[in-house]
Amino acid sequence: MTSKELAYIAQHNLQAHTGTHFKRAHIYELLAAAFGFNSYVALRAEAVFTKQSLSSRRAADFGEHVRIRCLGIGYQFDIATKVAGVLPALMTEHKFGLVRIPDLIAYLREQSGHGSWSDQDEREDWHQVRWWSSSDELISPLMLDGLNAAASRGHAAAHYALALIHAPAGDEFDAPGVGSDYWYMQGQNGRALTGVEQEWADAHAARLAQDEKFSLHLREAAKLGHQEALLELADRFDDPAFFEHATDSVNAAPSWVAEIAERIGRPEDARKWLTEAAKRGDTDAMRQLIETYEREDRQQCWTWVYLAKMFGVDLTKDDYAAINEDGSLYDDDVGGPLFLAGQDGVKLEPMSAAQDATARRAAHEIFVGVRQLTK
Predict the structure, then answer these.
(1) Which residue in 215, 300, 230, 227 sits closest to 264, CA to CA?
(2) Angle made by CA atoms 54, 60, 62, in degrees to the nearest 5
């Protein structure tokens, strides 16, 4: 289904229930009002329609908004009153919904393992807007139509959402059979394929098409300056543009950003983002800063040690555990080969009393800041 088909259904239904002709442009305005928007332009700027999947707004909640909007575009009071009841009911009956593009991106990134919230209020709001159908998939044709339309208008977030939808995800896009690329090339060269050979070739073609859509939309979003898309481009294709923009914030875990920077050979950027992670209470980032980037700055190293202790981790102590061959914790009752895993505590030279006091004070200030952010 497309947005035009949705508008046609709404138009036909309203005309049948009211005996009044509605312009198609007015239908779009009323649909926007049915989900709480003041205009269709405002809706298109941040959201798309969807069906039987995920909605951040329910039409049933905005009947009065529909009535006011209907009056505003020139319809009589009795017609507006009927529309206020009929249109939301139609949307609810057919499970037509609406999803904000930022909400969709947050969900998709969460599923990919790269989702991270920098604002508590945003995170709480996201949990309030979830609405899944128990039997239908998240991504509906109606949603894709809206995203593609928005992307065609240069909407960076819509491009990024489409990239995430089409992103290769681990084994899901691995070749389903040995030689699928071979059979694909055989088919391309004119060889007649049958049975499993054709299935493998088709699967490989589908994978190529998926990869092409992912790359296209990701690069378009990055070209339009979308920060998360730029970061994804760095992660997938080692493109340094994200770091060259010298941004100080992005909706992603700082430790992940640091990992990408290290992988593509940008140690100063890795240090910057590890510091950000450490200032948010990431004790692994603190250890990495001590051992790799700030070994010569004894006072800063002690600052991280004191901060880690405030989060319940003593970086100066050895941390080892007995494990099985598969990495699980060793159980004496089970027996078998025992392996030792872990790491030594960090070793730091002591400082003067003044330096020590400064390090403790700096750690305390960071800790207080973290606590305030998490309240």
Answers:
(1) 230
(2) 105
Q: Which residues of 328-340 are buried (b: 16+ CB within 10 A; e: fewer)?
A: eebeeeeeeeeee
Q: What is the pTM of this model?
A: 0.78
| N-terminal to C-terminal alpha carbon distance within the chain | 44
> Taking phi first (over 0 means left), then psi (-120 to 50 degrees means alpha), and beta for anything else, what does residue 179 get?
left
pLDDT digits (tens, 9 = 90+) for 6-30: 999 999 999 999 999 999 999 999 9
Phi/psi-derived region of residue 250, left when phi > 0, alpha when psi is between -120 and 50, beta in every other case: beta
* Mean pLDDT (the chain, rounded): 85
3 state DSSP class of 80? helix
A 10 A CB-CB count for 215 gives: 17
Q: What is the largest CA-CA distance in the chain?
A: 87
Asked which of 11-20, 137-146, 280-289, 335-344 is least confident by mean pLDDT, the reply is 335-344
Long-range contacts, 264-270 (Cβ 8 Å, 24+): 264/234, 264/238, 264/240, 266/240, 267/293, 269/243
Distance between CA atoms of 97 and 138, rounded to whole angstroms? 12
Select the more confidently predicted residue: 119 or 286. 286
Residue 75 has pLDDT above 70, yes or no: yes
What's the rounded Cα separation, in Å, for the pair 278 and 315?
13
- d(C-alpha 339, C-alpha 330), whole Å: 8
> CA dist 53 to 105, 136, 142, 150, Å?
14, 6, 10, 19
